[in-house]
Design a protein that fits this description.
This protein is of the alpha/beta class. The chain is built from three helices and three strands; from the N terminus they run αβαβαβ. α1 crosses α2. The termini are far apart.
């Protein structure tokens, strides 16, 4: 069951719960079987690292995009696939 959102109501199991509940749902494994691989852009950043950790803990296959692969070695050790990103586009 999803945690109550801003409105105070819970979404039914398996429903899209919006950004406020995405990390929590992933961490609790509610989306297991609904996703293939997940790409986390900026996996070494303030938001990306905890998100990637939560997804990996939930049993998801995670691709971690980072400019410096050395900064996401811990995510690779947890089972994440590290992809070197670019500095600019």
């Amino acid at each position: 069951m999803s945690a109550p959102g801003p409105s105070g109501r819970s979404a039914p199991p398996g429903a899209y719960v919006g950004n406020w509940g995405a990390a929590r749902a992933a961490a609790e494994g509610e989306w297991r079987g609904m996703m293939g691989k997940v790409l986390v852009i900026g996996a070494s950043g303030f938001v990306g690292r905890p998100l990637a950790r939560a997804l990996l803990a939930g049993g998801h296959a995670v691709r971690c995009l980072a400019r410096d692969p050395a900064k996401v070695r811990d995510l690779a050790a947890l089972g994440g696939e590290v992809i070197r990103g670019v500095d600019f586009v």
